[in-house]
TrEMBL record:
Keywords: Oxidoreductase. This is Aldo/keto reductase. CDD domains: AKR_AKR13C1_2 (cd19078). Residues 15-316 form the NADP-dependent oxidoreductase domain. It comes from the Bacteria. The keyword Oxidoreductase applies. InterPro entries: Aldo-Keto_reductase, NAD(P)_OxRdtase_dom_sf, NADP_OxRdtase_dom. It comes from Sellimonas caecigallum.
Length: 332
């Protein structure tokens, strides 16, 4: 697979693998043996960038995902880039499917969290470590200072922030250079295009999570699609309602048309579109299926012309589009 560079020097596969869905938010955790095999196949197929977090798991096993990756990827550790995150926990008192998040960006929390992640991931360092959400009660400079200490100690090599705006990024970057921001980005969620100029200026990479709008842009869902109640976030996401399926029909029809013209799939067009925007954008779609793993990887070879990107942008500005899931609530 082609590669891209995040920040000044973190080289990763052009498409990364978001591993959350193997353990969390897409129904009960998947079979560990199957996911271990899938992760090994991902390495064989050229994926070098694997994304997890300390809280991707279940009530029974809160750190399931890091433990899965630690065991599965141990034989390939010197060939891959491992990214994890700290700084939030779930509000377990909530009965919602998608529980609100409680941020905790205190330096002592960050330092304790990295030790847990290193142990579970069976490694002596993380290649990229993110503050998972900004804690409004802790100045971001303090969190960035803790990350700088972790770099100096050799526990991490690069610092990232998830769901950050320009002001936050500038403040954090002044204390410890930020290698990547990981924000939600897809054809249906484009809010963070506003920070592209500052990322260019500061030489910060953009890691796009939910690049297919939680799978919706694969064009594989319809009104009969069923999601496990209680464990699958898609069961409460606005883009998967019957009304939304109708409202998004024109957009998906256009996407399929472009896919046919380019001998690609709608998912590949969606990924190729964002990669054509900037050379430092790296999408990290997730999957539990080998076929999707390959399909997503091959998106790196789909090249859109400037005119085709403009066509897609114009379409996104003009056709009807439903609401789309915009992220878990942050508990005040």
């Amino acid at each position: 697979m082609k590669t891209r560079v995040l920040g000044k020097d973190l080289e990763v596969s052009a498409i990364g693998l978001g591993c959350m869905g193997m353990s969390h938010a897409y129904g009960p955790a998947a079979d560990k043996k199957e996911m271990t095999e899938l992760l090994c196949k991902a390495v064989e197929k050229g994926y070098t960038f694997f994304d997890t977090a300390e809280l991707y798991g279940t009530c029974e096993n809160p750190h399931d995902n890091e433990e899965l990756l630690g065991e599965a990827l141990k034989p390939y550790r010197n060939r891959i880039v491992l990214a994890s995150k700290c700084g939030i926990r779930f509000d377990e008192s909530s009965s919602e499917v998608n529980k609100p998040l409680i941020p905790d960006g205190r330096p002592e929390t960050i330092k304790a969290s990295v030790d847990g992640s290193l142990r579970r991931l069976q490694t002596d360092h993380l290649d990229l470590y993110y503050i998972h959400r900004i804690d409004p009660k802790v100045p971001v400079e303090e969190a960035a200072g803790a990350m700088k200490e972790l770099i100096d100690a050799g526990k991490i090599t690069h610092f990232g922030i998830s769901e950050a705006d320009e002001h936050t990024l500038r403040r954090a970057h002044a204390v410890c250079p930020v290698t990547a921001v990981q924000n939600r980005y897809s054809m249906m969620y484009r809010d963070y295009e506003a920070i592209f100029p500052v990322l260019e200026e500061l030489q910060i990479g953009f890691v796009a999570f939910s690049p297919l709008a939680n799978g919706f842009l694969s064009a594989q869902y319809n009104k009969e699609s069923k999601f496990e109640k209680g464990t699958d976030y898609r069961s409460v996401m606005p883009q998967f309602t019957p009304e939304a399926i109708d409202k998004n029909e024109e957009m998906l029809r256009y996407l399929k048309g472009m896919a046919d013209r380019k001998n690609a799939t709608p998912a590949q067009i969606s990924l190729a579109w964002m990669m054509a925007k900037k050379p430092w954008i790296v999408p990290i779609p997730g999957t539990r299926k080998y076929g999707r793993l390959i399909e997503n990887a091959q998106a790196a070879d789909v090249e859109l012309t400037e005119q085709e990107v403009k066509e897609l942008d114009n379409m996104l500005e003009s056709v009807p589009m439903s609401e789309v899931f915009g992220g878990s609530k942050i508990k005040k």
